[in-house]
Amino acid sequence: MDKSECLTADWQTIGFEDGVAGKNVGNIAEYRKDCAKHGVSPDLSEYQRGHGNGAKLFCTLRNGFTRGNEGKGYNRSCPEALEDAFLAGYRDGQELHALRSIM
């Protein structure tokens, strides 16, 4: 992020976008590093709030299945309360993906 982006960032929106994309909440460390160069510190609570809302859309059984079926990875981005459902779908999707790849 450049100085202008750091100064005008909507941290809740950035967190939401990261959550929807399946990025781990620890991704804020990159923003901290970028913005520290410009004397700006991200708003962690706003980022976490946005990430939690985005994760609700990402961390579903259906999306887990789709990602596993497509052979995509999982970045441990789902909160504990949502992770079981996501992982159940993800494992089923991975199994189908593996079966198709040996045929």
Q: How would you describe this structure to a colleague?
A:
The protein has helices spanning 3-8, 11-20, 28-36, 44-58, 61-69, 80-102. It has six helices and no strands. Helix content is 70%, strand content 0%. The protein has 103 residues and is mainly alpha-helical.
Describe the structure using short key phrases.
about 100 residues; mainly alpha; single chain
Layout of SSEs?
Elements: H1 3-8, H2 11-20, H3 28-36, H4 44-58, H5 61-69, H6 80-102
Helix pairs in contact: 2-4, 5-6
What Rg is obtained from the alpha carbons, in whole angstroms? 16 Å
Write down the overall geometry.
elongated
Element string (H = helix, E = strand) = HHHHHH
The residue ranges in which pLDDT falls below 50 over 5 or more consecutive positions are none
Number of strands: 0
Number of helices: 6
Please bin the fraction of helical residues.
55-70%
